[in-house]
Design brief:
- By secondary structure, the protein is an alpha/beta fold.
- 41% of the residues lie in helices and 14% in strands.
- It has twelve helices and eleven strands.
- The strands form three sheets. It has a seven-stranded parallel beta sheet, with helices on both faces. Strands 7-9 form a two-stranded parallel ribbon. It has a two-stranded parallel sheet with strand order 8-11.
- Strand 1, helix 1 and strand 2 form a beta-alpha-beta unit.
- The chain is globular and about 55 Å long.
Amino acid sequence: MTLNFVVTGADTELGQETTRQLVAGGHQVTGIPLSKDGLEVIRLQGGLPVDASLTNASEIKNVLQTANANVVVNLTPQMPNTLLSDGQDWKGFDKTLKATTAALLEAIADSKIQFVVHTSYTFLYGNATNATETTPLVAPGDDPIFTAAIAAENQVLNSKIPSSLLRMGYLYGPQSKDLKLYIKSFQLKRPYFAGPANNLGNWLHFEDAAIALVKAGEQQKVGAVFNVVDGTPVSFADFIDYFAFTLGRKQPAHIPMWLTPLALLLIITPQQVELLKLATTIKNDSIEQQLGWKPRYLTYKEGLQQTVQTWRSKNEI
């Protein structure tokens, strides 16, 4: 059955892949970009771009009505969801989360939307082993941005709007501009902040994230919460070191976390420091059982190999 989707943040790296997959699946997609610069990006993926403010409920409502939308996929929270940018995208994001979530829910309240897919983060389980969807959430370091992320989840789940929630691992793939920047760092032999070697994080390829979003929008499990990760947790250090290996580079040097906090924070944000401190493993059984989702890239190694091969096939590296 063809559905009319509205995707917020459709010009982001994940938004582009999600739009492409929805269109390939026969659905109609109206995309709201984060900025006007993203309008053409959405069009190139087969979506209909509409310039509207993601903090203005009235403008969003007009988009929903014009698109005759059935489903909204809220990707705005995923914009900073990576360990690859030194945390710079988290700056001020608590305000963004609060404003965009409130505006979206207000716009949907009086619309004919039948379902909302809201996205969040698996790192909100904090230091947890084999975390499931019922594991209590914590805001790492009591950071206000991560606290706002939990509040946004609660706003959506406690509203009267039929919805499901997808908590995602750290995103990466050939769409990632931040990952490509590491190539230059390798060439210049620059060290990077790797975090503790034994602290495991959870990763997710853009393609697999988009597949999960499409399935969630199509199957519409009201009230469901799903962990979306590849199932192979790995430290940031091992992730980046294997990326260098895949490119044929020597292992880059690591900057230790025991440097003075001031020196550390001159380069990376407090949010990045808190995320690097976490040791989290996640169970993703529920989404497989309920939606039939399985990652194409079962490990970060497979995903990074595909990423590098894609770039080389397009002569991008």
